[in-house]
TrEMBL record, chain A:
Coiled coil: none annotated. The lineage of its organism: Bacteria, Bacillati, Bacillota, Clostridia, Lachnospirales. It comes from Lachnoanaerobaculum saburreum DSM 3986. GO terms for molecular function: D-proline reductase activity. This is Glycine/sarcosine/betaine reductase component B subunit alpha and beta. NCBIfam families: D_pro_red_PrdA.
From TrEMBL, chain B:
Keywords: Oxidoreductase, Selenocysteine. This is D-proline reductase, PrdB subunit. Its EC number is 1.21.4.1. InterPro entries: D_pro_red_PrdB, Various_sel_PB. It comes from Lachnoanaerobaculum saburreum F0468. One of its GO terms (molecular function) is D-proline reductase activity. Pfam families: GRDB (PF07355).
Amino acid sequence: MSITKETLEKHLKDPAIFCCRREKGLVISAADLEDPGLFEDMQDAGLLTLSPDGLRIEQVIGATLLKDVEALTPITRDVIDRVNEVGEEKAHEIKAKEEKEVKEVKNVVESGGDGMIHIEIGKAEKFEGLKLCVPVFSQGNAPAAPEAKSDEKLGEKTVIRQLLKKHIKIKDVKLGKETKIKDGVITIDKSIVERAVKEDGLCKSLELEVIHPSNRHIYTETIMDICPIATKVEGELGQGVTKVADGVVFMLTGVDEDGVQVHEFGSSEGYLDEKMFFGHPGCADENDIIIRCHAVIQRLSGMTRPGPFAAHKCQDYIIQAVREQLKDYDGEVVREEVCEDVRRVGNPRVVLVKEIMGQGAMHDNIICPLEPCGVLGGQKNVDCGNVPIILTPNQVRDGSIHALTCIGPATKEMTRHYIREPLVEGLAADSELDLIGVVFIGSPQVNDEKLWVSERLGSMLETLDLDGVIITTEGFGNNHIDFIQHIGQAGKRNIPVVGVSFCAYQGQLVVGNEYATAMVEENMDKGGFENDIAGCSCVTTEVAARAIQMLKNRMAGVEVKPAQKKWNNDVINANNRLLGLPETKLVESGTLH
Amino acid sequence: MRLTTVEGMQSEIFVPVTPKPVFTELKKPLSECKVAFITAGGIHKKDQKPFNTSGDFSYRTIPFDTPSDQLMVTHGGFDNSDINKDVNAMFPIDRLHELVKEGFIGSLPEETYTFMGGGGNVEKFMNETGPEIARKLKAQGVDIVLCTGGCGTCHRSATIVTRCCEQEGMSCVVIAALPPIARQQGAPRITAPHVPIGSNAGEPNNIPQQTAIIKESLEWVRDCPSFNQTKVLPYEYRHNV
């Protein structure tokens, strides 16, 4: 692979190696040389042996080749007509100059006497040398001299809509004869399971059980989902008022009639206290009461699409009964959370792209159901063809995604994750950015379709006129094809991009491209495996903070150093320290597949 | 534009490079070759221990005279319904017997080896499982090895084991539903039918399609000019999950 002039300038002092076979008479340029960033890997793979007689890039540029030379061969004195004389300083000079230019970000906004506002931006990654002339709107004869816009006004917040989330205190949950909420206690009619199970023929039985925080050392079948109890009391998803039960969540577990775990692929059956990362966004919190809804689905349907869906649908029938009670319950409000969809015109326009599973079996998501985190009324992203769908940050924070993806639960985002997604929260709150929206894109099963949906995402990113993108994925393996493709879609349009994923050891990328150079790791397993602790390695507040900072660096032209050649948690913690974040402590799960 | 920047941050995830080429040229006509078929798609005999679906570097020995209805799949990385209908969609054992009968290939070895490559431990497959499978196939006089992956990391594991076989002196091809992975991981040869993961060797019960995919993959073993080349096969199957 040849290199660009920019790469060449960064690597003047590195060894000069031909990327491909080159013939006698060639005048050597960047296009003929291999990227020094790859040398370490190539040496590891036995593809390249560096020679002490090899020349540096700065010594060979412009020289003429005297004989044919094979690919990946160091260029030595005997094969070229001349060696450039260069001092040690030259490279540093160039580098110093580059740095200076990058840091000179100067915005000038002024109004002139010709009825136009003239904006001149000195140098920034995307606006280099840009001049804009904007007409000054005026109704009268004399052009009104508008107030010069100050820097403070750029990025001023305009609220598009508000969502109020009222968190209602729940002290206890009981199973009884009718479903009601009174004095902070939810009672669920025990016999509701008999009606719920009729919602889908593939669901054979349902069982409810209340698990208190003090009693978590109990056996559980694999965790299929953690779902909050939230309901609309005013407006539609993303606006108005939503009530969320505080201190309680539903947990869906499931097996088939033969006792085989649904989601048998890193399933999380075992002792509950050991099988969930309590406190992570998708999980139950330390003090949450858990209502376990255990489903038994039809034999052999666990690894097909309708089976797991049946379990989710039947559980939703039960949750809906509780939602109906919550609507009318005027209990203690422990927290009022105001969420805003805003525009901050003048700030960098960014979107968050979330790649979600879309391959059938249990790899599906329900988008925009009628109730927050619900099932009814939503569309399955597999049925939507996995195409990118854009939601407002408020819609996401109001439970627009119901996740059916909890296979390999350590690296998947459960339903609760989305209603409190740290990247959505972080980007929406950041006064230096303008979060345009959150794109959900499914990961299809077929390679051609992966590329197809990624092309659609590329067009969307382009038309949104973006300054930056953060792309996340869940799981690892085939979804990384799409993930890397998506990063490429942004990268080739010169949109600064940061990728966020679980990779570590087991999930190391299976494909890559030249744009995947600002990447954030989600792993929290000691061995770097996808362990069987639900919600262990996913987007956390710390992951989000690193990703957002990396994106800002990229947009401002501040270097993000290249990754080491192997997963190393020290790199992650070095980044954490730079940002004043707590250390990423890895969990010893004993996983060693 | 005012952005807070922080100097000194480092990217946390590395991007792989394609490993060293391995390539064994086929020197016999296909009709004289002994052809093995391995798979990372989690196929095993019904009476064998199922794979650990969250990651497993062990393998199962499958005698080639095993009736296809005695085989099953244990794999969590994709929708299993196609293989439940017809195991030949991943491991086309019936088609291989037909090709011997037809004289398209010479023979099959007595036994072959299957594994579940999903979430596969790279070093274990590279240093233990792969070389062991390669030695056992070579010892049976195998000339050609065909291989299917299943899910994404299956393709990685499949490619690693296939590379071990190529290294051992057999000519191999990965029949890939996810060709970018096979390519990046350094498969010696790749064929790419338009199929979903889970039916890597063709639509269940579609005998002509399965046969064509195997035949053209074998021809690619014969005709592929150099390391890591892909041939796209003109067969399409869409699985409505």
